[in-house]
User: Which sequence fits this backbone?
């Protein structure tokens, strides 16, 4: 039985997505709930669980920084699956609430629904919580006169006996989140993408250009570039490159080795299949 | 009297930094407190205030997404000053508290102090608030037996009669935040940097490489590249380029126009001086 860690409590978008991913995995999977993304990844690194399932990017809000920063700092983690998961945000409250005065949710969905909230609930207090499922729990424990509502998945609301005020309240319907499954070892023989992380010399003008040149010359398709602070000083960055594997493997590896020579350090987090969830 | 909006309440890092910036400005300045970064920028755009002072990047935690996203979506805002502000985080509590059970702060300082918290307060509940100053207020209103503490600036703690538990608790001493002053018009004749924002065709392999080529060929120094989701669909991005102005202005403008031709759209947010605060 494979132990897979993820961000809880029950009813988070992470849990729904992890349940979906299970059917694509070779092993039987037991889901283990953690309260922080960082704890999930540390537990994989320390061998306490077999894999971790963590969000890496949302199409409206961008990167999940703690995931990128942890992947950049470890030498023991590999990406073994990517899942693209459509996000549906609901506004849910206790039956009987007539006026909504407080809205609870995680910071990401709050940002994803900013326009909706400004238009429909300009006077409501917006309170951020550690997860959407936690927001639903808080609302379930509130009194009717508190006027509390949660932005959460339909499942999280229902698990807490909440009723729907509005469905699909995100500002933009093109709302999906990419998740990574992360393990200590990558046994994938094939994959759709490779993730490369490197630090390049920020003081050298054109350093990034020279890196991209290695990919462009070999027609390696880069589907994403992201930067994060190197945490050394302002102006020094770590770069993340998602590369497609649809070219000759030898040429792809050659480009990675050429980039390694131009980098302060480089990590190859392995190749992995990409699954786009249909739901 | 120039009206400058910023994120409150009193005692935020933003307020301290804004007070510092005032002495570099030509006009007398009145500070106007808002509760959200988005509200500050909207008020400038709508002409309700003359300028906005907002954080754009922290050296440990990276970009302030709401600032970047709002700048990318407006046609009316220009960057007129940049301030680099060293951040000192304190852990502060009510006099008499002996055991710390709950720690309140904004999500950014919580991330900046993650290792410190894990090592020193592994059992404490971490609760995110809308600002560091709000965290200090909540702690001031708590009871001694609640064991509440705030991560905030020394000034925010003192404004709320809190006492210091520990100073400089951020995981890395190289902690500073860049702020932008934003106005509707940019009258700067000179500046240290230019900010360019553009959307490029994500489907075209090597599109970013071709953009960087325009800068590299002309020896334009790029001090920062950042990407944010275009909010159209997963995999489409907007790019932010900080360019140094220490070359011939004609050549710099030429590179920007060449990039404009290769972009779906491009905005030039103007040139601005960079002030590094000494404190």
Assistant:
């Amino acid at each position: 039985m494979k132990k897979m860690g993820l961000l809880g409590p029950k009813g988070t978008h992470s849990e729904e997505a992890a349940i979906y991913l299970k059917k694509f995995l070779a092993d039987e999977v037991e889901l283990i709930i953690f309260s922080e993304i960082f704890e999930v990844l540390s537990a994989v690194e320390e061998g306490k669980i077999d894999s971790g399932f963590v969000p890496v990017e949302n199409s409206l809000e961008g990167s999940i920084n703690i995931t990128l920063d942890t992947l950049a700092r470890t030498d023991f983690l590999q990406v073994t699956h990517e899942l693209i998961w459509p996000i549906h945000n609901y506004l849910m409250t206790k039956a009987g609430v007539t006026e909504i005065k407080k809205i609870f949710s995680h910071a990401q969905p709050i940002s994803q629904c900013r326009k909706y909230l400004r238009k429909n609930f300009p006077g409501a207090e917006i309170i951020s919580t550690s997860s959407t499922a936690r927001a639903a729990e808080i609302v379930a424990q509130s009194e009717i006169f508190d006027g509390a509502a949660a932005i959460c998945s339909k499942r999280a609301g229902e698990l807490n006996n909440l009723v729907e005020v509005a469905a699909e309240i995100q500002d933009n319907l093109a709302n999906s989140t990419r998740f990574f499954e992360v393990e200590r070892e990558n046994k994938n023989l094939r994959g759709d993408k490779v993730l490369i992380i490197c630090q390049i010399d920020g003081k050298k003008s054109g350093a990034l250009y020279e890196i991209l040149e290695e990919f462009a010359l070999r027609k390696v398709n880069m589907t994403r570039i992201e930067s994060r602070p190197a945490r050394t000083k302002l102006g020094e960055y770590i770069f993340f490159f998602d590369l497609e594997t649809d070219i000759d493997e030898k040429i792809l590896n050659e480009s990675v080795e050429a980039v390694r020579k131009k980098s302060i350090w480089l990590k190859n987090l392995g190749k992995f299949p990409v699954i786009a969830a249909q739901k």
Summary: DSSP finds nine helices and 16 strands in chain B.
